[in-house]
Inverse folding.
């Protein structure tokens, strides 16, 4: 017997029964994003590695430890997409969006790939919704991006989320802060873990990402970035908060919130849910005013966010939010005998061409077995075809909720099924 193969560690299959709630969530997200003026963007699943080393930052854990990188047959280094902002920025530059009315606003629903330890709701292949807006440095746009994500969470019923907010400063004020933080960390180096000692040399801001309790205790006494903001960054941050107030959005200031990419400037934010435990982040993002320039474009500001589909679904489940049930079949077509099977197939086909969801037996089950399948499928009706129905050109239609039956002519039966209660249409696949 051949070895049984399974999905790679840290990945998972999205089964047919999982699809309806993902489709529901995707439809909700698309509606919210489009309402705010964002248009859908899709980019290749893999990009040149240098897009991420230059855009995300060589000192980040994503680039140093988590990327799936390979050499293609042409000898080029390629990487499976670990995050969405750099590819969106590359598309903005490559397709000349700088010449179009600004800001240019994208949304996406993409698979992401990171080699990290699998945890509840975190996988090596996972899916994200995100938005990116290029071409404006207005703090109102930062607040809009936060408002888009807050709206999505609210409209899907995810209430248990807290917004954390910070400012990362800019090219003018951040370097001085980074040096003061590095000096502090070097003085306390013996109290830090090996990763944080390495981060101290490469990028001290990354130490705020550490989950080791000893390091977190040391960092409580570290210099605070908000205390080092230049007047322009402080004004920007204050204005963002004013626009959040206009939307009725509450927040907590968190000076340790630095996110995981080096491209962030000024606003950073994250929505966290206590139901997710220690890894509480559901989604977040911020401003990245130097990213487009770093990958070969002109000096174009931007802001956006990413939010994990699996994290959202897990938070909804743990919060007790009921996701709508998938559409029920309108009918299950039952063939009483072998002579009826072709007509049962024809009836199912004709109903499906109207956009109606219909199930049919393909295993030669008995009438009793087919009726059991009809009940299990949650179909509204059983459409029964036997010798008498074939002779009359009729169909016996049974209401599965009441058991009431009526024999109708073929076209009348079709009309009843199509217009029946809560008739389900379409498929459930993403």
């Amino acid at each position: 017997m051949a070895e049984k193969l399974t999905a790679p560690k840290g990945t998972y299959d999205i089964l047919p029964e999982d699809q309806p709630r993902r489709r529901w969530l995707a439809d909700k997200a698309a509606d919210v994003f489009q309402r705010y003026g964002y248009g859908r963007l899709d980019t290749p699943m893999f990009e040149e590695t240098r897009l991420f080393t230059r855009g995300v930052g060589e000192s980040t854990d994503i680039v140093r430890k988590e990327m799936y990188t390979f050499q293609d047959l042409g000898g080029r280094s390629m990487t499976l997409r670990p995050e969405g902002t750099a590819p969106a920025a590359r598309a903005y530059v490559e397709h000349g969006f700088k010449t179009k009315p600004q800001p240019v606003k994208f949304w996406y629903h993409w698979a992401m790939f990171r080699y990290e330890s699998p945890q509840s709701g975190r996988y090596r292949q996972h899916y994200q919704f995100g938005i990116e807006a290029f071409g404006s440095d207005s703090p109102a746009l930062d607040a809009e991006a936060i408002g888009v994500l807050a709206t999505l969470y609210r409209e899907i019923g995810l209430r248990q989320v807290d917004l954390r907010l910070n400012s990362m400063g800019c090219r003018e004020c951040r370097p001085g802060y980074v040096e003061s933080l590095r000096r502090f960390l070097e003085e306390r180096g013996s109290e830090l873990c090996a990763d944080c000692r390495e981060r101290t040399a490469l990028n001290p801001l990354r130490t705020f990402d550490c989950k080791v309790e000893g390091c977190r205790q040391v960092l409580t006494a570290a210099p605070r970035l908000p205390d080092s903001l230049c007047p322009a960054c402080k004004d920007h941050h204050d204005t963002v908060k004013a626009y959040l107030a206009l939307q009725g959005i509450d927040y907590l200031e968190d000076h340790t919130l630095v996110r995981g990419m080096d491209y962030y400037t000024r606003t950073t934010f994250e929505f966290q849910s206590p139901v997710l435990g220690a890894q509480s982040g559901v989604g977040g993002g911020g401003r990245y005013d130097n990213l487009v320039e770093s990958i070969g474009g002109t000096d174009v500001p931007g802001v956006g966010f990413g939010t994990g589909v699996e994290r959202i679904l897990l938070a909804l489940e743990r919060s007790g939010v009921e996701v709508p049930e998938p559409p029920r079949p309108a009918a299950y077509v039952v063939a009483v005998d072998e002579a009826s099977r072709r007509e049962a197939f024809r009836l199912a086909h004709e109903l499906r061409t109207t956009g109606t969801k219909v199930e049919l037996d393909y295993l030669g089950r008995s009438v009793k077995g087919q009726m059991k399948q009809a009940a299990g499928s949650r179909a509204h009706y059983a459409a029964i075809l036997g010798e008498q129905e074939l002779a009359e050109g009729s169909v016996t239609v049974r209401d599965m909720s009441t058991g009431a039956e009526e024999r109708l002519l073929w076209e009348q039966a079709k009309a009843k099924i199509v217009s029946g209660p809560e008739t389900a249409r379409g498929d459930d696949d993403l």
Observations:
- Confidence is low (pLDDT under 50) at residues 422-430.
- The longest strand covers residues 104-113.
- The CA atoms of residues 103 and 135 lie 4 Å apart.
- The two ends are 34 Å apart (CA to CA).
